[in-house]
Design a protein that fits this description.
By secondary structure, the protein is of the alpha+beta class. The protein has helices at about 20-35, 120-130, 140-145, 145-155, 170-185, 210-220, 270-275, 290-305, 340-345, 355-365, and strands at about 10-15, 40-45, 55, 80-85, 90-95, 100-105, 105-110, 130-135, 165, 190-195, 205, 225-230, 235-245, 250-255, 255-260, 280-285, 310-320, 325-330. It has 3 domains: about 10-135, Rossmann fold (3-Layer(aba) Sandwich), CATH 3.40.50.20; about 145-160 and about 235-365, D-amino Acid Aminotransferase, Chain A, domain 1; about 165-230, ATP-grasp fold, A domain (Dna Ligase, domain 1, 2-Layer Sandwich), CATH 3.30.1490.20. The chain has 10 helices and 18 strands. It is globular and about 60 Å long. Belongs to the D-alanine--D-alanine ligase family.
Length: about 375
């Protein structure tokens, strides 16, 4: 058994079974590099595409976008388990040796994107193990990953969203004609999205209803539940970061950012997000009127609270030419890659990347386990 670490042990968990596996790896690589090794004992834990947990080594598996856009993945063969108890422990299972205890875990930084990680499943495991972790809890993680239920909570809180139609397998089987009619009533264009996917996977813009079936099929490759949204024609895409307050402190909001997609892309798709920046123009801080900025900040905190978020979130908006501000979605674990907007917005607000990561770990270490 290893001796207790004099520094808080941070297990950075990444990868997973979702389509966003590689984006999670890239985000985690940046987080691991930013954590001060003199302050924290950092343990990189990868979740392979088959769901197995392994002890990764960033020195031998570079968790970054490779030449020509080659995506990284978890590939270690050293199995590891998180064993719950009075204190949760990491146990390494080496096929050539007896299991060995790596040590207690003080906090987990789950740099997970998409289903089977960001959606409350990992958070539930950590809650059962009694381990503190960075970011949203079980319910807000689940709702924040499901665009349909997220919109319903926003509507219940009186927050503005675009018109939308849900398309579940049951809806389609019982009333396909009715679903098609409701989608047609949204007007064109519409965006067809998997309900529980991110990084723009499976999203299609539909300008002709003749293309609807193909768009639905594409979305269903990622999720049987689909949401079809009216397009925000002429609107600007504005984002804002939120950091939870400590104790009675108010939540903090970042400088705003604007995403402007070049003519080669119909929308902010995967290539525009993660491949070379000639695909997009990213303005941080965004050039918006003071009243619009105030409204975005206000709605960011309202959306954060409507989902009962913890730690952090990125809140995305559409701002129309008349100044109307409409919520798009909340990301409970936004991207942490070098191209990601959340760290950029906080850098523009005077919080550099290492300080941001340190603040999130400090917030997590200071919160209670169990019901909050």
């Amino acid at each position: 058994m290893s001796a207790p670490s004099p520094r808080p042990r941070v297990a950075v968990v990444f990868g997973g079974r979702s389509a966003e596996h590689s984006i999670s790896c890239i985000s985690a690589g940046s987080v691991i590099a930013a954590l001060d090794p003199e302050k924290y004992d950092v343990v990189p834990i990868g979740i392979a595409r088959d769901g197995s947990w392994v002890l990764e080594d960033p020195a031998t598996n570079r968790l970054e976008l490779g030449p020509g856009g080659v995506l990284p993945s978890v590939r270690s063969e050293t199995a590891v388990q998180l064993v719950p108890g009075a204190t949760a422990e990491l146990v390494v299972n080496d096929a050539a040796d007896v299991p060995r205890v790596l040590g207690d875990v003080d906090v987990v930084f789950p740099v997970m994107h998409g289903p089977f990680g960001q959606d409350g499943t990992l958070q539930g495991l950590l809650e059962m193990a009694g381990v503190r972790y960075v970011g949203a809890g079980v319910l807000s993680s689940a709702v924040g990953t499901d665009k349909i239920h997220m919109k319903r909570l926003f509507e219940a809180a009186g927050l503005p969203v675009l018109p939308y139609v849900t398309v579940t397998p049951r809806d389609w089987a019982r009333d396909e004609a009715g679903v098609r009619r409701r989608i047609a009533d949204l007007g064109l264009p519409v965006f067809v999205k998997p309900a529980r996917a991110g990084s723009s996977f499976g999203i299609s813009r539909v300008d002709d209803l003749a293309d609807l079936d193909a768009a639905l099929a594409e979305a269903r490759q990622h999720d049987p539940k689909v949401v079809v949204e009216a397009a925000a024609v002429g609107a600007r895409e504005i984002e804002c970061g939120v950091l939870a307050g400590q104790g009675a402190d108010d939540h903090r909001t970042s400088a705003l950012a604007e995403i402007r997609v070049t003519s080669e892309h119909a929308f902010y798709d995967f290539e525009a997000k993660y491949l070379p920046e000639e695909n997009t123009a990213l303005d941080v801080p965004a050039d918006v009127p003071a009243d619009v900025e105030a409204r975005v900040r206000e709605l960011s905190v309202a959306a954060f609270d409507a989902l009962d978020c913890e730690g952090l979130a990125r809140v995305d908006f559409f701002v129309f030419p008349d100044g109307r501000v409409v919520l798009n979605e909340v990301e409970t674990m936004p991207g942490f890659t070098s191209l990601s907007m959340f760290p950029r917005m906080w850098a523009a607000s005077g919080v550099d990347y290492p300080t941001l990561v340190d603040r999130l770990v400090t917030l997590a270490l200071g919160r209670d386990v169990g019901l909050r």
